[in-house]
Amino acid sequence: MITASAVTSSVATRKHAPPPSVRLGALALACIAVALATLGVGAVRVEQPRAIEALFGHGTIDQVRIIRDYELPRILMAFLVGTGLAVSGTVCQSVLRNPLAAPDILGVVKGAALGVVFLLLVYPTAAVSYLPLAAFVGGLFAWAVVYLCAYRRGVTTPARLVLVGVAVTALCESIIRYVLIDQSQGIGTALVWLTGSLAATDMSRVWETSLWVAVIVPLVVACASRLDVIGLGDDLAHGLGVAVERTRWFTLLLAVLLASACVAVAGSMLFVGLIAPHIARRFVGSRHAVLLPAAAAVGTLMLLVADGVGRGADPPVELPAGMVTVAIGVPYFVYVLSRPL
Amino acid sequence: MATVAPSAGLTRRRRAWAVFIGFAALAIGGFVWSVSIGPEHIGAWTLLKGTLAQGHDTKQLIVHLIRLPRALLAVLAGGALAVAGAMTQTLTGNPLGSPEILGVTSGAALFVALASVIVPSLAGVDTIFLSIAGGSLAAVLVFGIARFARGGISPIRLTLAGITISLLALALLQGILIVFSQDAELFFFWLVGGVTYASWRDIHTVYPWLLAGLALAMLLARSLNGLALGDEVARGLGYNVGRARWLSGVCVVLLACAAVGVVGPVAFLGLIAPHIVRRVTGSHNHFVVLPLSMMAGSALLLYADIAARHLDRHAEIPAGVVVAPLGALVFIYLARREKVAI
Amino acid sequence: MRLSASDLALSYGDLAVAESLSIEVPDGQISAVIGPNGSGKSTLLRALSRLLKPTGGEVILDGKTISAYSTREVARRLAILPQMPLTPESITVEELVAYGRFARRRLIGAMQDDDRRAIEWALEVTATTELRDRSVEQLSGGQRQRAWIALVLAQGTDLVLLDEPTTFLDIAFQLEVLELLRRLNEREGKTIVMVLHDVNAACEYSHHLFALREGKLIAQGHPRDVLTAELIRDVFGIDAHIVAHPSSGAPMCVPIAPANGGAVDSPPIARLTV
């Protein structure tokens, strides 16, 4: 992996600093703390500790309903989507060997959006429950196109994947715009849907998503050592015994599956997949066995905060979490740019 | 650059001229074709009269007020975007460079959208200013981001930074459209990019900037030739690399943003035209590539607009609809073939 | 011979680099591949380590065609250090060297004792033990190269291939690395094949030379037998004196002038940009 600025030696020479596992534990605790803190924030304010009590069924019927049926799914979804996007982003950055890579650039997000737009085009009255499926299929399809186009002589190089991903993203974007020109009705729905938001969630969707995440993320973690070695360059990785192309294909597929699923349920949350791995790396280092869980925790934190802020900043107006993540992302970039190289 | 025997240079120059004439012929042909087609059938004589003067005849008015500006704008904007693309490719050392890849067009579009939503009566020169402001900001961010990973600016990093900023700008744009949803359709139309609703006001607004930009580009042609050799070699030869880069960047923003301000962010135009030119002439000399790219870009946008108009006789479809998929395909083809270092 | 190539045809895309190249790597010795730019040295090494698929002929490792093994199996028998590997961010030397155990470790599971021993040994033999907790990015050129060598040594193979291990290092570091390789060969019996630019270093440190030019094997054998003025002229196109190294007696090549008194045959100047 190309060296990045600003990563000090403090992580590497951590003889006397707390080991990565402890830091990981700290991150996990932070997630739970923030989750509880944002409980009860929103259009109808439920004060702590009543909010936590409501979680267990104590309190007025309204409070319990709000906490259990409305906010709990959102918080759980923040965990799932945050994990999914962050893990997906980490894989992209490692496999493509670029700190600026993310599933968004592989055409997944735009492909998912295109899937939704097409569905609404063909079945304008499609039930909302079909949208995620369309998004998922769209994302996978876009990825398939990207991979096939980048595949040449038995190999896809990171450079080619990135470039083709960019082209497919642009292509999807232009098709979306064209379709939206033609169809004046339904633009509103499609637009809202495409912005990242945890709002339209319920427990059944949480269960479905958690099944997905619970299956795929462990598979990614199992590839941790391969991901480590790929960072040394294709040749050396080969020499060390990693089947590079197969690993690349497999892990990127997992990343795309995760990202597609997340976009399908939550829309496009920009920056989570891009930034979470960076922050995690600063915290626990580059070894994927700890980096992946750490990134998941950071992604979760990002979404918990974004959703909490979105709900609580200006009640009863709810800002979609996707816009808040953008608002977080820009200062982050500025901050990074201002540091000495 | 490799030294060639004198005879080879002569053939090359002859070739460049031939291509120039060819592209010019294409552009002129496209211009004439563009002016002559439309829902109303208009005879050749009326076309000529309409081109030259406004007149009182309805048909002449149609030609003068609707079709002529449309064709003219295509020529100007297409040429500008193509030149911006050629310069971007040299600046970034990336054969797949174009103003969109640098996020410039998205930034410009965002600012224009933002402004039109907040101040709906905004028009004319102010749009251009905003467009340039947005594009400059995007360019600064992109270059800044691309540098933040130690190891210098590489084509891939620049591309990724550009796409990140583009996605960001588009997301913000979408957010704005959600909040101010009444003009969404119009915006989407504009976002695809095209000359459909061109007017003389647009042309008057934009042409000083474009001409200035094109002039600046030609002045920078020699420096660009130097930059193409790589920073160290260029410096060794006496080029002021920093200044050349900076000025070229300004020129790219100027050309691309001015064009985007009136025509919308047409994707990939700046990518395709220079490539065609380079492949056909075999030359990398900017004294050749820049003017020829301009011709090629004009022709491209003209024909794309014509094609788009034929796609659906009853609805107006912006030229960008044709350019973008074409461009994406060219991009993919090139990505497969070119060796771009990480 | 554990590693050999028979009748290899190698090419990158449409560019043919070698045709019918056959070599046998002598076991337990240090072999050096020398030749001018574009002669196919690196390409040969890549083919020998299965990084490049030959378009004709075959590479034979331990009696089987190398393509018959899985990537992991090859990694257990043969280690290669390519040119310019990428340095991951924020990784310590010890973590880097640990990656070398990939081919021998199970998919999931903690490090075994032999893994730990191999890592310790690799660190010790390359004198990087005291650097183990340092970040790889922060090491000097020579230190970093030693760390990379420790990485491939941790693989625990008897065959080690290195592509220009000394090219970007200064004289002191070059010696460091070459001495290390000699120690590995003498004390551990490793078979080493390295591509070297420096003909004199090759003569000093290797037992067997392979001299390539334009994809053909011009000569091979012990440096003392093989390094002659005619060979230098044939392979590099220059006139040179051959003298004996003052300490070791190994042959040394001192260049005088281009052989044709002018145009040295070299690949055309590369095309600039697009």
Describe the secondary-structure layout.
The complex is a heterotrimer of chains A (341), B (342) and C (274).
Chain A: H1 9-12, H2 20-38, H3 50-55, H4 61-95, H5 108-122, H6 131-150, H7 158-182, H8 187-194, H9 203-222, H10 224-230, H11 234-240, H12 244-266, H13 272-284, H14 288-312, H15 321-338
Helix pairs in contact in A: 2-14, 4-9, 4-12, 4-13, 4-14, 5-6, 5-7, 5-12, 6-7, 6-12, 9-12, 13-14, 14-15
Chain B: H1 6-36, H2 44-52, H3 58-92, H4 104-118, H5 125-148, H6 155-179, H7 184-192, H8 200-219, H9 221-227, H10 231-236, H11 241-263, H12 269-281, H13 286-311, H14 320-337
Chain C: E1 3-12, E2 15-25, E3 30-34, H1 41-48, E4 56-61, E5 64-65, H2 71-77, E6 78-81, H3 93-99, H4 113-125, H5 141-154, E7 159-163, H6 171-188, E8 191-195, H7 199-205, E9 208-213, E10 216-221, H8 223-226, H9 229-236, E11 238-244, E12 251-258
Would you kindly provide a brief summary of this structure?
With 342 residues, chain B is mostly helical.
Structure description:
The complex is a heterotrimer of chains A (341), B (342) and C (274). Chain A has 15 helices and no strands. With 341 residues, chain A is an all-alpha fold. In chain A, helix 2 packs parallel to helix 14 (288-312), helix 5 crosses helix 6 (131-150) and helix 13 (272-284) crosses helix 14 (288-312). The radius of gyration of chain A is 20 Å and the shape is globular. Chain B is an all-alpha fold and 342 residues long. Chain B is globular. In chain B, 76% of the residues lie in helices and 0% in strands. Chain B has one domain (58-337): ABC transporter involved in vitamin B12 uptake, BtuC (Orthogonal Bundle). In chain C, strands 6-7-8-3-9-10 form a 6-stranded mixed beta sheet, sandwiched between helices. A 4-stranded antiparallel beta sheet of chain C has the order 2-1-4-5, covered by helices on one side. Chain C has a two-stranded antiparallel sheet with strand order 11-12. The relative contact order of chain C is 0.16. Chain C is built from 9 helices and 12 strands. Chain C folds into 2 domains: 1-78 and 157-231, P-loop containing nucleotide triphosphate hydrolases (Rossmann fold), CATH 3.40.50; 89-156, no CATH class. The longest helix of chain C has 18 residues, at 171-188. Chain C starts with a strand and ends in a 16-residue tail after the last strand. Chain C has helices at residues 41-48, 71-77, 93-99, 113-125, 141-154, 171-188, 199-205, 223-226, 229-236, and strands spanning 3-12, 15-25, 30-34, 56-61, 64-65, 78-81, 159-163, 191-195, 208-213, 216-221, 238-244, 251-258. Chain C has 274 residues and is an alpha/beta fold. Chains in contact: A-B, A-C, B-C. Chains A and B meet through helix 7, helix 8 and helix 15 of A and helix 5, helix 6, helix 7 and helix 14 of B.
